[in-house]
Amino acid sequence: MAAGDRTVLQFNSPSSASLSAKVHPLVIFNICDCYVRRPDQAERVIGTLLGSVLPDGTVDIRNSYAVPHTESAEQVALDIEYHHNMLVSHQKVNPKEVIVGWYSTGLGVTGGSALIHDFYSREVSNPIHLTVDTGFRNGEGTVKAFVSVNLALGDRQLAAQFQEIPLDLCMVEAERVGFDILKKTAVDKLPNDLEGMEVTMGRLLALIDDVYKYVDDVVEGRVPADNNIGRFIAETVASLPKLSPPAFDKLMNDSLQDQLLLLYLSSIARTQLGLAEKLNTAAQIL
Amino acid sequence: MANSMARSFLQVAATEEVASPLRVVQIEGLVILKIIKHCKEFSPALVTGQLLGLDVGSVLEVTNCFPFPIREEDEEIEADGANYQLEMMRCLREVNVDNNTVGWYQSTILGSYQTVELIETFTNYQENIRRCVCIIYDPSRSNQGVLALKALKLSDSFMELYRANNFTGEKLREKNLSWVDIFEEIPIKVSNSALISAFMTELESDTPVTQCDYDRLQLSTKPYMERNVEFLIECMDDLSMEQQKFQFYYRSLSRQQAQQQAWLQKRRTENMARKAAGEEPLPEEDPSNPIFKPIPEPSRLESFLVTNQIANYCNQINGVAGQNFNRLYLMKSLQDN
Lengths: 286, 337
What we know:
Mean pLDDT of chain B: 77
Distance between the termini of chain A: 113 Å
Largest sheet of chain B: 8 strands, mixed
Helix content of chain A: 40-55%
Number of domains of chain A: 3
Shape of chain A: extended
Low-confidence stretches of chain B: none
Low-confidence stretches of chain A: 1-5
Strand content of chain A: 15-25%
Order of helices and strands of chain B: HEHEEHEHEEHHEEHHHH
Strand content of chain B: 5-15%
Largest interface: A-B, 89 and 96 residues
Oligomer: heterodimer
Number of helices of chain B: 10
Order of helices and strands of chain A: EEHEEEEHEHEEEEHHEHHH
Shape of chain B: elongated
Strand order of the largest sheet of chain B: 7-6-5-4-2-3-1-8
CATH superfamily of the largest domain in chain A: Cytidine Deaminase, domain 2
């Protein structure tokens, strides 16, 4: 088959077909904060993404910092020295975080982005471009990740195409802190141990109520039965360990006694502290 | 006319600004996430970092922070550390981040943070900044679904005493200062910009139950309790050592006083004999005699700090025990049904 005259528009697929990215909530917080603090004449914020590449090819984006830039209709200028300084400073703390890409606010990818992407591809191979739509143009906040792919016509490089890659928000830390704290604009008090327990138990109760209502509905015939859900509920209920009542009582009482013992110990310790303090400071020197 | 105006100006210039007492520390969600990330990445090593923000009236706002690199025990790295700090502050200034240092944060293990180094760092900071705060984060407690974040400040009366470096019993009784008064805990308020809360509401996964809830309902808290009690025992040992020091001091003091009395008696009888013989009486004091040398009183600072730590552990044990009661009763009711 003569390869010859026909030149074909080649779409090179990205180097690993399963390239995806994971973003930590800290990065989004950082970007939003920088956006709110941007200088008045700038329309958008540009910055560097730091992170690491996991062994299975996923890019883990863990940290970010903003880089001052000037933008006009024709050109974009990035403060490269600042970028390097911040990179060095960050790597002093955490040498494992390397550049994995860059971010910009605003929905789509603009012309100037290609130039910046070019600059970043000189720093690291295959950088990720993250866009965070702070303008909520679609009616919701969208966070998208892109990789650049070269479009070549035969031997000539035509353009770079930004292809979207799947983005995963890994929210584990934020969940640990509690979304309630991070969601509202002002929280008056951090919940302490018992209040947190209360909230959690409230949620558990709500869940149990929901399941109860669902089962009731199915029995009454108001809702068509779904076998999968039914099986799931049966499994959950069956997962309670089957202990005979005296065995369970003994187990529980033992644990209760352990806790009471600890409480008693700590009260004794505190009494000791009170005594020690009196002895130390109340003694009169003759 | 001019006179009264001039006087009022003088009055204004003359009245000193009275700093309103610090009531609340307002932290941004961004700072909390950064602190959590930094402390968790390097746990169990202890890490520190700097807090930046604004001091407004009775609220201390913390708007950003940056971590410190782990300091090696090397002389030349000292200058590096200072350089790093200046560099970071300069860079953050360029992106319009508040440039004032308002304190520092550090991670801790199981709440064992009351050390002399903490107090020294506080005094160092307090020389330059009028109001600074220290935020303590305990990453080991986040496994139980509790956000263990505390804002601490040294109380003013304690600071004065520390500067004078005088911790004798009399001074403490004068000021009515006990171990509770060393550290003051300030309530924390969390604030977020509207943009961020919009994003968070948007991006939050829809599950009604989060990882936090799973952690809180976990039944096995034994390892945590065990470590807590271990630390408690160690601290008790330290406390008893301090007690022994005091005992020793008191015993030697009373022994010295007995010696002084005996010596004084002897002198007096000698003087009586001399007076009878018509000679000059000897002085009743003899500063060169070693039994008159005042014994230094041991400082109570260590014992106060240890006491604070013990109280902390006890509080933690109480808290977790309370949670465990809840969980056990929950299990019981589930089983009964």
